[in-house]
Structures are given as structure tokens and as C-alpha cells.
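Action item from last meeting closed. Structure (241 res):
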């Protein structure tokens, strides 16, 4: 439907690929192999009582090269997840009407936010619990030895300031860590901090509030990867474990 809408606007290079993404065929390309450019994607979530769906369509931007980094978590390179990677209004509305025999669209304004059911939905969809907890199970691992070496799955080195023999592996479900093995060597002894992460929601962890006995570097790295707010590392951390 969206591709047909784009065609009516003169974007005849638009097509749907095998992943159901909307892509643009490069100018001058024939019917053979070619590298396409993704301009639209969609995602959905099905629950018992409702279905949520959203789609995006990027037509033009002077900052296309910069957009990618904002759509990917810095932790993504160390994560294996069960989920599927994601990612002209008038023309789409018109095409939607043709497909579903609609003639007069219903336009909803800001005033609908006062409707209790809609207000409740907005509050839920913008809550930290929805944003961070409604996620598929994933595994985080600092071990890059099993990574593919191709361009799609490159090996990413760990920060150089991490302690010797640093290792971090944990599994998270519904935004909470259910098992963890995080350790490093300090003064010849292995320090295990994974037990301090289990049963905690990742977005609620204040990495700068761990005991002083735990090295700063791993905590600052985790903060950079997972914190949704800026943490103040000037505060004195608690002294006892």
C-alpha cells in the first residue's frame, strides 16, 4: 500500500523486499543484483486484547549518515536477542482509503488526550516500564570470540581501561537481569559482581551507587551502555559491600 502511494508521487524506484521493508532501487540499476536503500520499516506487537503497529518512511534528510547511530543502542554489538531487528501522509491516507473503501478520514486532534482510555494509553506507552521492560529476552556478552568477522557482524574491541581478565555475561528478560556472570581480576584475585545484578531491572540500576570496592571502569562502561540518564560520578560511592 505504501509503495503504491510512493509510486503516485513519482517515486517509481520504491519496492518491497523479502523482509517487507520498503527500499529504493538505485538509479540506473537493471534487473540484476543491486544494493537497495531502505527508506521504511515497520514493527508490531500483539497482545491478548490489542495489536500495536507502527511504520516509518524516510523521504529526505541532510543528516542521513548520522541517523543510524541514534537508532541503535551502543550495547547492541554485544547483544544477542530473540526479537527481530527493525528499521507523505496525504498519499498514504488516500491509498489506505482506496484499499479499505474509506472516503472521509477522521482526524483526531490534541483534545483526544482528555479521553480517559486514550490518556491511560499515552501514559503507559511513554512510561519507563513500557520502554525498557516490554522487551524480548536477550543475552549480553563481552566475549567476541564467537562473532562473525563479516561487515554485518564485526568484532568490537572492549574498552582498553577495563580491569584485567574482565568478563561480562548476563541474560535479561522483561528488562530484568535473571542471571549474570561479571568478573575481573584485582590484585591477583578474581572479583565477582554478577550476583549484585541479578533480579534487578537494567534501567533502574544506578551504576554510580555501587560499593567503592568495585572498580570504576566496568561500572562506567555499563552506565554508558545502559543508562537512560546522565549519572554523576563525582558523588562519593558507598564504602561497604
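Sequence:
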Amino acid at each position: 500500500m505504501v509503495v503504491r502511494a510512493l509510486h503516485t508521487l513519482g517515486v517509481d524506484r520504491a519496492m518491497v523486499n523479502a523482509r517487507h521493508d520498503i527500499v529504493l532501487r538505485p538509479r540506473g540499476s537493471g534487473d540484476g543484483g543491486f544494493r537497495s536503500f531502505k527508506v521504511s520499516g515497520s514493527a508490531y506487537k500483539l497482545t491478548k486484547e490489542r495489536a500495536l503497529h507502527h511504520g516509518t518512511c524516510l523521504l529526505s534528510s541532510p543528516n542521513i549518515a548520522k541517523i543510524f547511530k541514534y537508532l541503535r543502542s551502543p550495547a547492541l554489538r554485544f547483544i544477542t536477542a530473540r526479537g527481530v531487528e527493525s528499521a507523505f501522509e496525504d498519499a498514504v491516507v488516500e491509498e489506505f482509503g482506496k484499499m479499505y473503501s474509506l472516503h472521509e478520514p477522521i482526524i483526531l486532534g490534541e483534545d483526544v488526550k482528555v479521553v480517559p482510555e486514550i490518556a491511560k494509553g499515552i501514559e503507559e506507552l511513554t512510561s519507563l516500564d513500557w520502554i525498557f521492560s516490554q522487551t524480548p529476552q536477550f543475552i549480553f556478552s563481552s566475549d567476541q570470540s564467537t562473532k562473525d568477522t563479516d561487515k554485518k557482524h564485526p568484532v568490537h574491541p572492549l574498552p582498553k581501561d577495563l580491569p584485567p581478565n574482565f568478563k561480562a555475561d548476563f541474560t535479561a528478560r522483561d528488562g530484568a537481569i535473571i542471571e549474570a556472570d561479571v568478573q575481573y581480576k584485582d590484585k591477583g584475585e578474581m572479583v565477582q559482581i554478577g550476583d549484585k545484578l541479578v533480579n534487578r531491572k537494567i534501567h533502574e540500576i544506578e551504576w554510580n551507587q555501587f560499593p567503592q570496592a568495585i572498580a570504576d571502569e566496568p561500572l562506567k562502561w555499563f552506565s554508558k551502555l545502559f543508562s537512560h540518564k546522565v549519572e554523576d560520578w563525582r558523588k562519593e560511592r558507598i564504602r561497604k559491600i
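Note appended to the action item: The beta strands are 14-16, 22-24, 37-46, 51-57, 79-81, 138-141, 167-173, 176-186, 189-192.
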